Amino acid sequence: MNYDLSVPASRIAERMGLNFPEDRWPDLVRGLEGAAQSLGLESPHSLVARLLSDSFGRREVQALAAHLTVGETHFFRSPDTFAMLQSSLLPELIAARQHTTRRLRLWSAGCATGQEPYSLAILISRLISDRADWDVTILATDVNPEAVAAANKAEYTQWSFRGTPSWVINGYFTRTPEGRYLLDPAIRDMVTFRFLNLADNVYPSPGSDIHDFDLILCRNVLMYFSREMAAKVAERLHRSLREGGYLLVTPSEASREIQGGLTSSMSNGEIVYKKTPRFSGAVHDDLHVPLADRPAAAPPEAPRVERRSKNRPFSAHAERPAAETAKRPAKATTDPVEAAREARILADRGELNRALACCESSLECDKLNPSLYYLKASILQELDRPDEAEQALQSTLFLDGGFALARIMLGAIARSQSRSGEAAKHFREALVLLAQMPSSTVLPEADGLTAGEMAETVASLMGSECVS
Ligand SMILES: C[S@@+](CC[C@H](N)C(=O)[O-])C[C@H]1O[C@@H](n2cnc3c(N)ncnc32)[C@H](O)[C@@H]1O
Fold first, then answer.
1. 449: containing domain
2. Which protein residue has the closest C-alpha to ligand 1 atom 5?
3. What distance lies between CA 420 and its chain's CA centroid?
4. pLDDT tens, 15-62?
5. Ligand 1: which of 12, 19, 139, 142 to mutate, most ligand atoms within 8 Å of CB?
6. Count of CB atoms situated within 10 Å of the CB of 441
7. Whether residue 236 sits in one domain with residue 111
8. What is the pLDDT of residue 331?
9. Three-state DSSP class for residue 461
10. Is 353 near ligand 1, meaning CB less than 6 Å away?
11. pTM for this prediction
């Protein structure tokens, strides 16, 4: 296919969420060819014609999903996350229901071949000994029918257990004569698998029992979505949670679209959002940027960057809650370390204008600190001021050419503005920098993420198909 794919690509983003920027068109072409073949069509052109017409239905979505999605997964993927689920989040949910409804509702959205929901089921079976007295739902959905069929079979190869604790294989699987691993039927039967296209506006829905969840895992899914669709899906996932319920995404998927109305925290490298009563259902149409590119912790700007007066009023354009706008002056301090600390706390709370003022005040005293410029860039990015964020990032790199996170954020900004070539260049350079460190090195300014984990994230952003 040698014609402009921008229209089919944008139709696929609308219908399935999947984002195919120009540098991924070769993947798109391969997917269209494979899907056309499995639909028995003469050529991918016929499929494109359907895509652009009303005759594009569930069959076509499923055929494309089987060829375009990335189904990479394994049991207890991100062991720290499952350790956190086992030791704190699930016990908290269970304790809250123990003496009331004894009802628990969990959803793995984008479950691939089932390793994630089955990992949850294993944990539940260990944490609730009297399960017969409980009403536990574990729903698992995916757009790829082949993945759902494989999940239902619950039979795996060794590849599904990389990094998985040995007690999982030893305790819950039996070997088949072919050397495969068959899941204990008691665990298998705890999970209900269904087809669901997250891009369809059909949930939450009490009618189809997709609503009122205590916990939703939507990990390694939104990273493949267009910014617009990620925002829509995030909003629907919010509404599918009960109040007090949790949503887990990976750091590279954290965004202000999800943040709106939820409180977030970082736990063992995973982002945990909690639905609070104040959530109104509104979402922000802001930049979708990996958390590591976001304020969180330390960053800063450069000697050649224009400095603002800390009293200059900032645009409240992208500020989070209105009550937090910059009416209160930033805390006056001449201690750059204290000002930077304050900036991080304010940024974490979403008080971005005040955070920016603090950060700039810190920079006035510590002009050669690359971390402060990175912090400034992160805050500007949150304020939807990407041009200024880019300037601050250039300053970071001017002071410290090895500052990998600055490269990654530059890549994310370029990518969000469809400057694909430039984005790829930044990501490649970031990977080179990350590769120079031991993969277990915890990166400064990255909320505990290691160089290896960050490299995985960057590889995912670049469209790598094998990231874990
Ligand atoms: C990389 S896997 C993630 C699996 C699992 N959540 C994990 O983290 O290990 C991404 C999954 O998202 C699914 N997916 C992609 N687009 C989707 C959509 N529009 N609706 C539902 N699932 C989708 C893919 O089919 C794939 O199985």
1. 291-461
2. 111
3. 20
4. 999 999 998 899 999 999 999 999 999 999 999 999 998 888 999 999
5. 142
6. 14
7. yes
8. 42
9. helix
10. no
11. 0.64
